[in-house]
Amino acid sequence: MLLKRLEISGFKSFAKAVSLEFPTRITAIVGPNGSGKSNIADAIRWVLGEQSFKHLRGKKGEDLIFGGGGEESSASRKVARLSKASASLVFDNKKKVFPVEFEEITMSRRVYRDGINDYVLNDSQVRLKDIIELLSKVGLGASQHHIIAQGDSDRILYASPKERKSMVEEALGLKIFELKKTEAERKLAATEENIKQVESLRREIGPHLKYLASQAEKMKNAAEIRKNLAELSVGYVSREKKTLEREAGEIENTKGPIEKKMQIMEKEIREGEAMLGGGNEAKNFFDELKRLDSAHDAISHKRIEFEKEAVRLEVAPAKSAGASNNMLAKDRVKSVLMELASNLESASRSGTMEAVRNAIFETTQKIYSFLESINGENHAAGKPDTASALNRSKEAISALANEEKEILAKKLELQKEYETRARNLQKEGAALRVKMEELAKTKEELRSFAAREEKTDALKKELELDFSELLREAKSAGDIFTGLERADMRKKIERLRIRLEEAGGVDESVLKEHDETKKRDEFLSKELDDLKKTAGSLKDIFDELADRVEKDFETGLAKINVLFREFFREIFGGGSAEIKMSKPEKPKADELEENWQEEIAEEPGLEINVDIPRKRIRSLNMLSGGERALTSIALLFAMSTVNPPPFLVLDETDAALDEANSAKYASMLRELGKKTQLIVVTHNRETMKAADVLYGVTMGSDGISKLLSIKFEEAEGVLAKVR
Question: Where is the RecF/RecN/SMC N-terminal domain (predicted)?
């Protein structure tokens, strides 16, 4: 379904927000008289841009807003009036029926009590023109032939021929082309008016342009001198500008690297002076050397101790082979003696009396302790396991020897580094003196560039003073000046200036006005050509649109006529009906009425001729109310069948039908529902049976319309379950 739902809030009797879904082809809206059924059709018409309050059953915008309700005697049940009314139509655009990118289009309209209207399209405020153009592209035009209001079912029969033609054009989807044709016609009229204005302006400035041209001819000599002076001045300024820019560029390109070189040299000299002035390197060297010697002595001492232990462990197994039963006591004696000897050697190396006394005391104590242990123990057999101890001692000796080698290597490397550094310091001193001499030369070179810069700045100031106006517009061009060329060109410029002064006072404003007027005339001439081309294009577009509208209208009208006759015969059981083009005929002179001037100006329209069976009726004015309704329905269904609109709203169009015709009407609704979406406001039971969804509208004592809805498919399912 293209029309998905209608949302109403504060519109007429619908004070509270309601939403009507349209999920099926035919939706019927029923309810008692005065409940607000037709307000739903009015809401749809209003959202689609209706501007006539007569068609909306009101006199002003405020009448569309809920004005309050309830009984005066019961204040608690009264409902206050609202400040605005709004309604929205939501369209499904997945098939891109509307030429926009959105898959769902929400078209809304709001009105306030001050009469201001807002038009909103997908949350964006738009103009009424935008709404009408968008609707015209899907066959929903301003005449709103697709909405038949209550009591207005025969509107197309009583409309003027011109109005009928407009309704049929909208039904055939030609309104968008009519709008384009009208727009092209409006633009063509505006273009033709612009052509007249341009031609008038050219005629106005023509004599003045001739006078200015004669004045310019009289001053041709002075103008020629002025031209030569300007050309020579421009050439001079361009060459001088290029020369000065090149000179400045050379200075900048050469001076920059020299300044950078000077900075680097100054930095190197400062670093060299700082390096030559440092005296802490020798002290650091000897301190590090002393530290390495101390570490070497300590490791050496440990290595000697382990070597002694290893010797002891190697000798012990050799002696144990021929030992007597008291061998265990001898080994212990040897171990104790070796330990005592080690303590005494340590005391002798320390060189202090306190250490010697301590060593003698410890030695005495160990001797007494050993003697006591010998006296108190028995002979013991067996051999100590010395192999593992010997391996550990050898591993420790090897590790300590490696550490000694590393320390000696570090000492040698430190000595070499110190000697190399000493030699480099001597070389740095000589290089520093050379760099200082180069720095002095570089500074002298920079001073020469400063003199060139001063000369260039002086030439620039002189150029700015003499040629300030040309300097802003002139570009760097030409050959580079030499000293003689610059002087010669300046002399030529000065001579031309003197000749210009001798030629007399040249009125520059006359020449300027002549140039401006001539340019304006040329511009107007070009504009006139463009306008004439535009007018020709607009005429072509207008003719093309007119031809297309005419051809499509004739084709569509023929199809409508065929279906109109078929529906008419089906409803009336025979007869014929026809809708055709007609042109007003000019009456004779004696029959000319006062208002013929207005009628003759009308465009051709459509006339309807009917022939009801068993009756000699051909005029629409002779039809009864039911016959008018049936004829209108036949024509409306024919138009909708040829080019189905997105949806069709029928507000009690079946009110004048009897039971037999109501059944025919319902059958026609079902057939039409296969081609377009129908929203029907009705009291007729046959029409209700044709609907798939039924909305009931009621109104309570508070004056607010309320909705009830039922889907017949769901209702049939519920009834089937109950049975």
Answer: 3-705
